[in-house]
């Protein structure tokens, strides 16, 4: 894997907003057929990093390489053209618009020319239906508003859209955080499938339990800097969790929880006779 | 019937209920306005059926009122679906009217060049409006409110400065033999109507001429603009971008929709439609007046909202706005024909607006619930 040219690589990338250093000296690389998990707590700089990768922000320092070539994106459209597709947390979906309209938003297929150039709705509806069926979600009617879909289904529409439009690098921003267990597993299975199809996947999350099964490597972010990149073979789930949240914080949390439990137990014991009295009545 | 093999239908899903055509129509944004227009028509056929409102001339009369409003309402609808307002439409009408009349009357420009001048200026102001909104990120309400006053002030100040009056007349004379004027004046299909009168299909007056001699050009503009706007919204990429910009500009930008360009184009289109309104009005009345177009921006917004568009953007239709304008015209003229004091028109208008908004809110909720 090390001989392969990475699909996307960051070399000491930094991003400042005025006096605030949002990202500092971040380096990482992702090859095709690989899932890189970007882990970090809230405020670690995950969102800034994704926005830099997807062309929303321009890095103030360092450089980005796409397939070995140094690249600067002027806007998100340019990143898309280079095959870097980002599925944002808000999914870039518009609830009042139909699934098909959302699926092809910004990249509508057209037929005809001149003033008669129009969207090829037949083709669009067919593709939307087929692509959704491929990932095991059959949409009932592609002209229904996206707002009627469940969270997991919406996530999958967003990913399917990115894959359909020839994404080589797929950036997923917290794809599972708002989902139930079953729906999250649908999305995780789809991430595994995208990897085996040869995509480079960057999977941003703060949930180690979702990240660990599908990831090949982890990059940990904390307060805008990278704690390093680890192959899955090098670290265990607990180690990742500890590094991410800071082991000390979790230990103190454990202690506090134990305290609560003890208090609860004492309260129920003292309340128990009263309960018995009430029942006796 | 019995020997027909099961046709190769697309795979159906047992969770999809068969939705009747009627129900599908109900889920369109314009359904409220269409139903409303129908009710209003029925009401006035009963209440004013014998007053001449529904004779040929009467129908042309209320359609003309609807057409003028419809021209700006269609543009305002696209803009509102795109997530913005334009409060300067009304002032723009007065302003462009002056830009056409002053050069043509006071400085002897040929009318066609004055018309082009007016349209180019409207386009520039529209672009400036749009550019300011997308550039500053300020609400379009504020930016265009500024232009409401700027343009109205210019519509009063410029004629005072150049002619010492606030009304510039004599445009009818300037229209003689002008090649561009017929685009904004007169009637279409006069030959057809004469022929229909000759074979007795439509009524004639004492001189043997048809009572309706043709379709006023404003109505043609209205239908034409509605058709083009509907085509753009439902059929083209740009239409999809309009919905996207209004629905969620951030999401749209993230998938590569040129949000700023779309919004600026919509502002420019709105300004052009206001200029069309001004040109039609100046040629119809033969004069420009500083106070022309007062409150038209609000009437256009009312027509658009009655037509089913959401004030927040992302949802609506051009056909809806057209029916909104039709309701407007019908009621305005209907009240006149029934002899009710026209003061009541505004009461009706406000009530209609509220009913439409409540209805639209309900429909939108239903649309997002439907699983």
Give your account of this protein's structure:
The complex is a heterodimer of chains A (281) and B (371). Chain A is α/β, with parallel strands linked by helices. Chain A folds into 2 domains: 8-235, Rossmann fold, CATH 3.40.50.300; 246-281. Chain A is 40% helix and 25% strand. Chain A contains 9 helices and 12 strands. Chain A has helices spanning 46-53, 76-81, 99-103, 121-134, 151-164, 181-196, 208-214, 237-245, 247-280; strands at 8-17, 20-30, 34-40, 61-66, 69-71, 84-87, 110-111, 118-119, 169-173, 200-205, 217-222, 225-231. In chain A, strands 6-9-10-3-11-12 form a 6-stranded mixed β-sheet, with helices on both faces. In chain A, strands 2-1-4-5 form a 4-stranded antiparallel β-sheet, with helices on one face. In chain A, strands 7-8 form a two-stranded antiparallel sheet. In chain A, strand 4 (61-66) and strand 5 form a beta hairpin. The N and C termini of chain A lie far apart (74 Å). The model of chain B is unreliable at 1-11 (pLDDT under 50). Chain B is globular, with a radius of gyration of 23 Å. Chain B has 15 helices and 4 strands. Helix content of chain B is 68%, strand content 2%. Chain B has one domain (72-197, 215-361). By secondary structure, chain B is mainly α. In chain B, the strands form 2 sheets. Chain B has a two-stranded antiparallel sheet with strand order 1-4. Classes of the chains: A alpha/beta (281), B mainly alpha (371). At the A-B interface, helix 2 and strand 8 of A face helix 10, helix 11 and helix 15 of B.
Number of domains of chain A: 2
Strand content of chain B: under 5%
How many domains of chain B? The number is 1
Oligomer: heterodimer
Which structural class is indicated by helix and strand composition of chain B?
Answer: mainly alpha
Average pLDDT across residues of chain A? 81
What is the CATH architecture term of the largest domain in chain A? 3-Layer(aba) Sandwich
* Rg of chain A, Cα atoms, Å: 23 Å
Structural class of chain A: alpha/beta
The number of helices of chain B is: 15
- Which spans of chain B of ≥5 residues are poorly predicted at pLDDT below 50? 1-11
End-to-end CA span of chain A: 74 Å
Q: Count all strands of chain B and give the number.
A: 4
Major sheet of chain A: order of its strands? Answer: 6-9-10-3-11-12
Principal-axes geometry of chain B comes out as globular
> What series of H and E elements makes up the topology of chain B?
HHHHHHEHEHEHHHHEHHH
Instruction: Give the helix level of chain B as a range of percent.
Output: 55-70%
């Amino acid at each position: 894997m090390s001989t392969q040219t990475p699909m996307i690589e960051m070399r000491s990338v930094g991003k400042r907003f005025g006096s605030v250093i949002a990202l500092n000296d971040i380096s990482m690389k992702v090859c095709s057929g690989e899932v890189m998990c970007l882990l970090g707590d809230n405020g670690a700089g995950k969102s800034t990093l994704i926005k830099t990768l997807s062309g929303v922000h321009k890095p103030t320092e360092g450089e980005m390489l796409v397939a070995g070539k140094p690249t600067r994106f002027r806007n998100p459209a340019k990143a898309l053209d280079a095959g870097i597709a980002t599925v944002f947390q808000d999914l870039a979906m518009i609830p009042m618009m139909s699934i098909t309209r959302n699926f092809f938003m910004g990249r509508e297929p057209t037929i005809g020319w001149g003033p008669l150039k129009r969207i090829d709705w037949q083709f669009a509806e067919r593709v939307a239906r087929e692509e959704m069926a491929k990932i095991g979600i059959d949409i009932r009617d592609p002209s229904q508003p996206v707002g009627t879909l469940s969270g997991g289904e919406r996530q999958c529409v967003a990913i399917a859209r990115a894959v359909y439009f020839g994404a080589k690098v797929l950036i997923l921003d917290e794809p599972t955080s708002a989902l139930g267990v079953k729906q999250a597993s649908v999305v995780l299975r789809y991430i595994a499938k995208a990897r085996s199809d040869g995509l480079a996947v960057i999977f941003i999350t703060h949930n180690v339990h979702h990240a660990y099964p599908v990831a090949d490597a982890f990059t940990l972010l904390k307060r805008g800097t990278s704690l390093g990149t680890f192959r899955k073979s090098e670290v265990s789930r607990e180690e990742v969790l500890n590094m991410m949240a800071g082991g000390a914080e979790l230990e103190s949390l454990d202690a506090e929880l134990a305290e609560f439990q003890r208090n609860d137990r004492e309260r129920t014991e003292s309340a128990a006779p009263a309960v018995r009295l009430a029942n006796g009545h | 019937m019995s020997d027909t093999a099961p046709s190769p239908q697309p795979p159906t899903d047992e969770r999809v209920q068969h939705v009747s055509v009627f129900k599908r129509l109900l889920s369109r944004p314009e359904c409220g306005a269409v139903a409303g227009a129908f009710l209003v028509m029925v009401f006035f056929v009963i209440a004013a059926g014998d007053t001449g409102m529904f004779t040929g001339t009467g129908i042309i009369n209320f359609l003309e009122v609807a057409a003028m409003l419809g021209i700006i309402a269609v543009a305002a609808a696209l803009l509102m679906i795109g997530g913005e307002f334009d409060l300067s439409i009304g002032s723009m009408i007065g302003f462009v009217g002056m830009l056409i009349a002053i050069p043509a009357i006071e400085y002897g420009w040929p009318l066609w060049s004055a018309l082009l001048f007016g349209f180019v200026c409207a386009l520039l102001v529209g672009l400036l409006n749009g550019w300011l909104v997308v550039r500053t990120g300020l609400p379009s309400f504020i930016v265009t409110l500024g232009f409401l006053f700027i343009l109205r002030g210019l519509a009063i100040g410029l004629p005072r400065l150049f002619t010492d009056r606030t009304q510039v007349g004599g445009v009818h004379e300037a229209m003689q033999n002008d090649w561009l004027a017929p685009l904004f004046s007169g009637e279409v299909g006069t030959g057809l109507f004469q022929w229909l009168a000759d074979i007795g299909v439509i009524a004639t007056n004492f001189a043997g001429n048809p009572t309706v001699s043709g379709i006023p050009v404003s109505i043609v503009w209205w239908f034409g603009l509605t058709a083009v706007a509907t085509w753009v919204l439902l059929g083209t990429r740009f239409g999809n971008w309009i919905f996207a910009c209004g629905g969620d500009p951030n999401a749209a930008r993230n998938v590569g929709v040129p949000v700023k360009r779309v919004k600026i184009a919509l502002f420019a289109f709105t300004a052009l439609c206001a200029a069309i309104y001004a040109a039609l009005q100046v040629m119809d009345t033969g004069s420009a007046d500083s106070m022309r177009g007062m409150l038209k921006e609000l009437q256009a917004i009312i027509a658009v909202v009655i037509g089913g568009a959401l004030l927040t953007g992302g949802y609506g239709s051009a056909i809806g706005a057209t029916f909104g304008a039709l309701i407007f015209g019908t009621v305005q003229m209907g009240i006149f024909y029934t002899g009710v004091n026209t003061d009541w028109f505004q009461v009706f208008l406000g009530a209609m607006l509220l009913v439409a908004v409540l209805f639209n809110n309900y429909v939108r909720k239903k649309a997002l619930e439907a699983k």
